[in-house]
Amino acid sequence: MARSVAGGALEYLSKPLLTDKLLALLRKIASPHQEAAYEPEYSFTPASTIIGRSLKMLEVYRAVARAAPSAASVLITGASGSGKELVARAIHAHSPRVSMPFTPINCGSFPETILESELFGHEKGSFTGADTSRSGLFEATNGGTIFLDEISETSLSFQVKLLRVLQEQKVRRVGSNTFIPIDVRIVAATNKDLSAMIRAGQFREDLYYRLSVVTIQLPSLEERAEDVPLLVQHFLKRFNQRNQRHVNISEDAVKLLASTSWPGNVRELENLIERLAIFAASDEISTEEVERELVRRNEATSTPENSTASLSGKLQEMELKAILRVLGESGGNKSLAARKLGIERKTLHEKARRLAIDLESKET
Ligand SMILES: Nc1ncnc2c1ncn2[C@@H]1O[C@H](COP(=O)(O)OP(=O)(O)OP(=O)(O)O)[C@@H](O)[C@H]1O
Ligand SMILES: [Mg+2]
User: Fold this and answer.
1) What pLDDT, on a 0 to 100 scale, did the predictor assign at position 11?
2) Alpha-carbon distance 78 to 359, whole Å?
3) What is the mean pLDDT of each run of 10 residues along the chain (364 residues)?
4) Is the CB–ligand 1 distance for residue 219 below 6 Å?
5) Based on the number of CB atoms within 10 Å of its own CB, is 7 exposed (0-12), middle (13-18) or buried (19 or more)?
6) Pairing state of beta strands 170-171 and 180-181?
7) How many angstroms does the Cα of residue 189 sit away from the middle of ligand 2?
8) pLDDT (0 to 100) of residue 311
């Protein structure tokens, strides 16, 4: 089946992905001389399908395929909304632990003491309010996978305790002297630069090495813009299925989406598609509708600090905004708009083509 990455895999990848098949394929590519010992026997639900066939995503699949069968800790890094949790779930789902629990916990959303008792459990009377003994998530997840999201948000003293649990594979409830053996696989995620945090004394190096036996770096959506059309179709299809609709999108509108910047990555694209589908005036989302949404989005998030967009992406958006505004002010009159913008009519046409603005639908 897998002739080569260039032949077999890409040919297969020209369709939206069925992750388990893809992983089986990639596993064979990754170890050409060795048949995979473990074959997944279940199907991923559509909600957890990972979309993308860019080279960057192929690398991700390959890493998932290599890491999943083992019990090694995995550290997933990547910007917000880039799919870290999805990948963590894929690792668990393609591991021999698939029938055991997968427990995600956001380390950033608890104060230290609560996080400790959530994960390790506590004995009755170990702190004010602990009126019963309780097992923690490590015990409850025995045999499965714990997903420690936003691991960078933990305190140094918590990191010491976590490291001890991982090293000894035993957990001690808060306020107890008994060690309980556990078998839990750890997948951690962060959108911070942990190396920099180690240098700044904010993250323990020993824990870092323990967590990052395998690291998977997720690309930002801008690094894999060629995946945008696939993602758009995927989200539209899901929307249509959920809502019994048949909303489509024009080719130019998809091009515009693929050429814009996505500081919020896949999550942002997903939300935008949902909005576009809900408010679509007809069954086909038009370029104008996408432009309007992009302008709205940019107005909502136009502080320079919170954007990781590239300079060219930002300039393009500023241009897009200016042209749309002036076209509106000029009642769609292109000569007038060009004059107001201080550019030639020809240049306006070139820019409009590049920014996928449909000048023809506007009056002259
Ligand atoms: N490759 C992908 N294919 C399909 N959907 C994706 C993909 N990547 C992300 N998504 C979707 O985008 C949303 C955000 O993904 P996810 O929660 O995994 O990101 P994250 O990196 O954990 O973000 P955060 O750092 O904000 O927690 C989810 O709804 C997820 O289903
Ligand atoms: Mg997340």
Assistant:
1) 34
2) 38
3) 34 42 56 35 52 91 91 97 95 93 95 94 86 93 97 97 96 95 98 97 98 97 95 94 94 96 96 95 96 89 55 74 82 87 87 78 48
4) no
5) exposed
6) antiparallel
7) 8
8) 64
Element (H, E) at 94: none
Length of the chain in terms of residues written:
364
Q: Is the CB of 233 under 6 A from ligand 1?
A: no
For tokens 């000569």, the residue is 335
Give me Rg for the CA atoms of the chain: 25
Cβ atoms < 10 Å from Cβ of 86: 17
Question: Is 166 in contact with 204 (CB distance < 8 Å)?
Answer: no
Any atom of ligand 1 within 6 Å of the Cβ of 271: no
Residue with token string 């917000």: 80
Top mutation candidate among 221, 239, 267 for ligand 1, by most atoms within 8 Å of CB: 267
Instruction: Tell whether ligand 1 has an atom less than 6 A from the beta carbon of residue 264.
Output: no
**Ligand 2 centroid, distance to 103 Cα (angstroms):** 13
This prediction has a pTM of 0.75
Cβ of residue 230 lying under 6 Å from some atom of ligand 1 = no
Evaluate whether 328 touches 296 at the Cβ level (below 8 Å).
Answer: no
CB distance 50 to ligand 1 below 6 Å = yes
User: Is residue 188 helix, strand or coil?
Assistant: strand
Mutate which of 86, 87, 106, 192 for ligand 1 pocket (most atoms within 8 A of beta carbon): 86
CA angle, 286 then 288 then 291, to 5°: 115
Please check whether residue 319 is in contact with residue 312, taking contact to mean a CB–CB distance below 8 angstroms. Answer: no
Q: How far is the CA of 127 from the centre of ligand 1 (A)?
A: 37
> Which tokens hold the place of 123?
């004995």
**What one-character DSSP code corresponds to residue 97?**
T
Atom index in ligand 1 nearest the CA of residue 84 equals 21
Question: Is the CB–ligand 1 distance for residue 267 below 6 Å?
Answer: yes
Question: Do 265 and 80 touch, CB atoms closer than 8 A?
Answer: yes
Instruction: From the CA of 81, give the closest atom in ligand 1.
Output: 23
Whose CA is closest to 52, among 95, 82, 27, 24? 82
